[in-house]
Amino acid sequence: MLIPKTESELAQIIADAEGPLSIQGGGTRGMQCAGSVLNTRGLSGVSIYEPGALTLVAQAGTPLAEIEAMLAAEGQRLAFEPMDHSGLLNTTGTPTIGGVVAGNISGPRRISVGACRDFCLGVRFVDGTGRVLKNGGRVMKNVTGYDLVKLMSGSWGTLGVLSEVSLKVLPAPEKSGMVVIHGLTDAGAVQAMSRALGTPYEVTGAAHAPQGSDGQPITMLRIEGFEESVTYRAKALQKVLSEFGESSVELDQDRIASQWRWVRDAKAFHDHDGHVWRISVKPSDAPRLVRSLDAKAVLYDWGGGLIWALTAVDVDVRASLEKDRGGHATLVRGEGFARFHPEIPPIAKVSRGIRAKFDPRGILNAGMMEA
């Protein structure tokens, strides 16, 4: 295993590589490619943290937990709520901030604040030739030039190996609240979530589990902010959703946090055999798609726009998508199908061209994002 301690060492390793390199951060996301393992955990540490400016700069191998603890001490957070895949994939290790950015890992709050890439201000990375490149800035006002920041976010190490990331952070809310509705059908839950997201009450999480922790359907709508505001908005939201049946308001902070970690990390699928798919669809199409999958279990997030599905190993989710108005499916756990959704030919041609520019030898996570 190759573990550079500095950016210059990372650049030298890539420049001298005679074969493919499998890029690894914390090793929690199960993304293993052919070749020598190049691990970024030696590039660790927070370079700059300015709470007043809401900005943070960290080396790519910095553990996510370390960053979250530092932010929490100042009453701040990574608003995009990155997932921890280790329980779902039964992996060891610690998630790193570079892995989060490389995968554009974003949780339930994405529907209200945006994805990881929307909080990236700048990146430093080494491309497939060993060149050190940078884009963006270390503060919000300096973000200029070609938007390689967003290009790198979600590229899974196929264009370059991140060495440093700059992020915008946000204040943590004073209080959280949750409106809970029990017993809704999938279609009813999607309607309720859509109604809630269309209100002015700033819903920051909208999820539905046909089988909650008690085995019964549960629909969850999260509200965050100042305590008095949360209480008012939760009651107002209850009134708006009264046509969907009785609801309750949860204000216990520990229970709310636990419930949304359950959603964020897809804990309903932990310790259960089968393939796990992450499916993006139009919310109104989600219940019909789920019926066609014959899934063992499902979880709706983002108001129904994101479906987590646990299926038998021979179920081709993408075939169902093609029959059901389209969508996008990633195989998060399992084998036998391409991990990433195949691109249509024109987009695939553009992707190949971009990879050829950044990694002309094709050594960085080779084949990872190709069908």
Question: What report would you give on this structure?
Answer:
There is one protein chain. Strands 3-4-8-6-7 form a five-stranded antiparallel β-sheet. It has a four-stranded antiparallel β-sheet with strand order 11-12-10-13, sandwiched between helices. It has a four-stranded antiparallel β-sheet with strand order 15-16-14-17, covered by helices on one side. A hairpin with a 5-residue loop joins strand 6 and strand 7. 44% of the residues are buried. By secondary structure, the protein is α+β, with helices and mostly antiparallel strands.
Question: Key features?
Answer:
alpha+beta, 4-stranded antiparallel sheet, 371 residues, 29% helix, 5-stranded antiparallel sheet
Strand content: 15-25%
How many beta-strand runs? 17
* Element string (H = helix, E = strand): HEEEEHEHHHEEHEEEHEEHEHEHEEHEH
Structural class: alpha+beta
* Biggest sheet strand line-up: 3-4-8-6-7
- Radius of gyration in whole Å, from Cα? 21 Å
Q: Which runs of at least 5 residues are low in confidence (pLDDT < 50)?
A: none
Helix content: 25-40%
- Our measurement of the CA-to-CA distance between the termini, rounded to an integer number of angstroms, reads 27 Å
Mean pLDDT: 93
Shape, principal axes of CA atoms: globular
Largest beta-sheet details: 5 strands, antiparallel
Number of helices: 12
